[in-house]
Amino acid sequence: QVQLVESGGGLVQAGGSLRLSCAASGRTFSRYAMGWFRQAPGKEREFVAAISWSGGSTNYAGSVKGRFTISRDNAKNTVYLQMNSLKPEHTAVYYCAVERGLYSSGSYSAVQYDYWGQGTQVTVSS
Q: How far apart are CA 52 and CA 34, in angstroms?
């Protein structure tokens, strides 16, 4: 049984930073790409960032490129999302997910991910 547990969310002022973590278990973590998505109130879930199985390749949504950084530590079965210069529009529930298929590169599409965490709330105040 694959389990993903996110942590690190919270309330932060605009301009601040947060680092989200996602601890994975139940699958050989190092063989799968990981992604971060978010869902704001009244909006659909959207792609934020993804990282390939090896960590050698990353993808970002245009809105977060240069501001957010995804990374992974395969020895700890954990993927991270460093978020800097946060804005109120970044307020959302952030989810991590595992991409289906071995040795994947990190897709933009949510349908490519087959396991999801429960989400962690990020609230950015103005």
A: 7
Report how far apart the first and last C-alpha atoms of the chain are (Å, whole number). 40
Strand spans (E) along 1-126: 3-7, 10-13, 18-25, 34-39, 46-51, 58-60, 68-73, 78-83, 92-99, 113-116, 120-125
Grade residue 26 by pLDDT with cuts at 50, 70 and 90: confident
Q: What is the mean pLDDT of the chain?
A: 96
C-alpha span between 19 and 57 (Å, rounded):
20
Please say whether the beta carbons of 74 and 12 come within 8 A.
Answer: no
Inter-residue contact 83 to 111 (CB < 8 Å) = no
Helix and strand totals (H; E) in the chain: 0, 11
pLDDT digits (tens, 9 = 90+) for 47-91: 999 999 999 999 999 999 999 999 999 999 999 999 999 999 999
